[in-house]
Design goal:
single chain, 5 helices, 10 strands, 33% helix, alpha+beta, eight-stranded antiparallel sheet, 2 domains, globular, 202 residues, Protein Transport Mog1p, Chain A
Length: 202
């Protein structure tokens, strides 16, 4: 029975390790408390407005009415460059800077273990910051993603916390480990049945 336990234990590790995501596609590993995933969203003032948008996703409070904290993910056609990210950031700064928004410099960053760029993007009201925001842009295979973290809540306004959220972005695919998991479970069941038959025959 030790072999059966070992096979079941390995299968459990695969099940609990996060190898099989709940859903496919662009998502975060670190999600602010109370937010739910949705792909029914359209946002303006995109970090890459000159590129064709392939999809948009977000983490928001259920019901869509409370936007105190949100994370918006946009997927674009093709690979962006740092120069493109800086050009858009400068364009927005010239148009909205110090009146409606405040933008920080573009910095090197890593998202999902890949080279990326990041800058702060805060909202202003009456000259005061009302929301702290962070925008990250990462080329990913043959496309590009932007991750916009924005919050007026103290817990999620922290720059390092927002960086951690953005850096946890990844594109998940279901089924990658499912054949292995099913094979392990089948092997455990077969060995268990065989040992049970041996005991009945003894």
């Amino acid at each position: 029975m030790n072999l059966v336990r070992a096979l079941c234990a390995v299968a459990a590790v695969f099940s609990l390790s996060g190898c099989e995501p709940v859903y496919e596609g662009p998502q975060l590993s670190t999600v602010p408390d109370g937010l739910a995933y949705t792909n029914s969203i359209r946002s303006s003032r995109l970090p890459l407005p000159d590129r064709r948008v392939l999809g948009q996703y977000a983490y928001v409070a259920p019901g869509g009415m409370d936007w105190k904290t949100s994370v918006t993910i946009s997927e674009y056609e093709g690979l962006s460059t740092r120069a493109e990210v800086e050009a858009v950031r400068d364009r927005y700064h010239s148009r909205y800077g110090d009146r409606l928004s405040r933008y920080g410099p573009v910095e090197d960053f890593r998202v999902g273990g890949r080279p990326a760029w990041v800058y702060s993007a805060d909202s202003l009201s009456g000259g005061k910051v009302t929301r702290h925001g962070l925008t990250a842009v990462v080329p990913w295979d043959d496309r590009t993603f932007s991750i916009e973290v924005s919050s007026e809540e103290e817990k999620w306004r922290n720059r390092e916390v927002q960086r951690e959220i953005a850096s946890s972005f990844h594109v998940a695919k279901k089924g990658r480990f499912r054949p292995v998991l099913l094979a392990l479970l089948a092997a455990a069941a077969a060995v268990g049945a065989y040992l049970g038959l041996r005991r009945r025959q003894a």
